[in-house]
Structures are given as C-alpha cells and as structure tokens.
Give the backbone structure.
Amino acid sequence: MKLLLLLGLVALAQCHVHRVPLRKGKTLRQQLKEHGLLEDFLKKHPYNPASKYNPVLAASSSFEPMQNYMDTSYYGTISIGTPQQDFTVIFDTGSSNLWVPSVYCTSSACSNHNRFNPSESSTYVSTNETVYIAYGTGSMSGILGYDTVTVSNIEVQNQIFGLSETEPGSFFYYCNFDGILGLAFPSISSSGATPVFDNMMNQDLVAQDLFSVYLSKDGASGSFVLFGGIDSDYTTNGIQWVPLSAETYWQITMDRVTVGSDYIACFLTCQAIVDTGTSLLVMPESAYNRVLSDLGVGSNGEVSCDAISQLPDVTFHIHGHAFTLSPSAYVLNEEGTCSLGFENMGTPTELGEQWILGDIFIREYYVIFDRGNNRVGFSRLF
C-alpha cells in the first residue's frame, strides 16, 4: 500500500455541514432546469445538429454541472453501482483516486454523508486491497472495489474506487460533498488504482483525450466539467497552451512571478500545479512573505476593502505568456472583511517549494486539461 501525500486539498473549502444534494436518474435537461441552469446553458449552447459536443442534445453528452459553494468548493454528482447510488464529489485535478464513504465507515464524518453499500449493487466486485490517502486537510483509509461509475451520461465499466472505512478528524464531517474524484495522472494514484478519466479514455468513452473546466465566480451557477470536449463559447480570447513538466499532478514550469513591475519570486523558474481541488493560491513561504511585503499587507493577509482598487496586479509568467490576476480576483470579500486569496505553504514538502494554482487562479480562465498532448490550455474569460 502506497502512502500518497497529496497537496490537492491544502486550502479546500471551509466545509459546511448542510449539503445541497443533486439527484441522478434524470435527464441532463431536467437536472439543469432543477438547479436553475437550463436557461443560461441553452443561451451558451444553442442547438447545432452538426456539433458532436452539444451537451444537452447529443447522445455522447459529457457535460457535468457543478455546484458552487461560496467560491470555496465546486462539486457535482456521480453514481456508482447497479442500481445507481448517488454521491457528490469534488472533481479534483490535484489527486488521482476516486473514493466515497461506505457503510463500513465508523467515523463521524461518514454519519452525515451518503454511503456506498456494496450489497445493494449487482455489479460490485470486491478485492482484498486496501487504500490510504492523506490530503493537506484530511485523510481516508478503506478498501478497494470495482463497479460501474456513471459521470453525466458516461458509464465507466469496472472502475476501481475506494470505499472509506475511516475518515479521521472533523474536516470531512463539515464538507458538503461526499467524496473525491481525482483527475490527475495514474503515477500518483494511491494503491495503483486506475483513475476514472484514464478508464474513460481506455474504454473509448470520450471523443478527445481531454477535459475542460469552468468555475463560476461570486457563488454564481454555471460551473461545469466537460469530458472529451472544448466549448468554443469559452475560448473566444484564444487558448494559451502550456506543456506539462511532469505527468504526475497537472504540473507546469513557471518562469517568474511579478507584483506590478517588480520581479518577486520564482527567480530560476519553479514548479506549479493547476489544482481544482484547492480553493486558494498556495505559494512557498519566502514568496508569500515577499508578496505580502510588496502589497503592504500584514502577516494575517487582511486588507482594507476600500483599498482593493489601489493594489497592483500579480502576474504569473508561464511558457512565454503572462497570466495576470487583478486585485478583484485575488482579494476575497467575506461580508465586508477582505483578505488575500493566497496561502503560505509553510515547510517545503517532499515535492519541494511548489506553487498550487487553485481556484483563485482557475476562475479567471477556462482551463483545458489535455491528456492526449500532455499540456494545459488557458483561455481568459473576462
């Protein structure tokens, strides 16, 4: 059994005990209508009989809507088993395993979440394998099994997944999602479990070996993952492609980081991962202290809400492209209290002084995770 230290949830959601359940067994149109997304989605995706990526009408639909919980977590619904058992999951590009709570779980974190019952699925296949995953803010241990996993209308046969038996501590108890569906590479998968998207590719269930992500702002609806396609409505500003530096996380090389016109970090290049499972933008301690100093912000990261417009841009220079975050993007306003959406990684891990480009960064772009070409694409949204 491999011990995997994943950074994907270092700053994930201030979890909330009240979950917003999404039900399966309905058509995608019904799901969108139920959650107030249909009208907006149809405007962005008018019917085009020639388009194989029309997520509402095409038989090969791979559109997965996600709930936006206060800009801190984004999660959608999948089903496991026959008949289907429903679970809300984080679609996490910072990890590679799929796991959900199970009826075997004895932790309090499982008591208020949906739990998978193998005895109620005619397609479940048990194993003698165990799994343990440690995230930045929680961990799980349990057993591995195989079953049919349905994401949107894609049915993945014989998908290996974790059934949690323990979820220590209180973190997952307060989360408004049940489990996690990892979308990173097989090389970092705990216990060597094949990730869901790898099986989608292996079973020829997606038109292209890529998926794309849109994360809405300010608690708005409309967030989604599109498996196997790129939505051209979100790429009108063009796509900047960045090659991967490692096939582990969605890892890329950054050239430098500037605040305003000042070169403040990443002096001899540095590594970053693009992580939908991390709420904030996480940086090494030295860079974090320099950013706070250049922005004139105290060690607690709090800023005056009235002074936001006077702050400089923070720009990430990556593969010859400049990806700029304005103050309105990197400052969080929570009921009149404003703070930076940056976090100090603290002591370097076994991965070194790595940056995590979390939701603070991703919300500014439509992001394409291209497994076929081992690259990430960014298209500015605004």
User: Anything to note?
Assistant: The chain has two domains: 4-233, 235-380. Helices lie at 28-34, 38-44, 108-111, 196-202, 285-295, 327-330, 359-362. The domain at 235-380 is CATH 2.40.70.10 (Cathepsin D, subunit A; domain 1). Residues 16 and 147 are 29 Å apart (CA to CA).
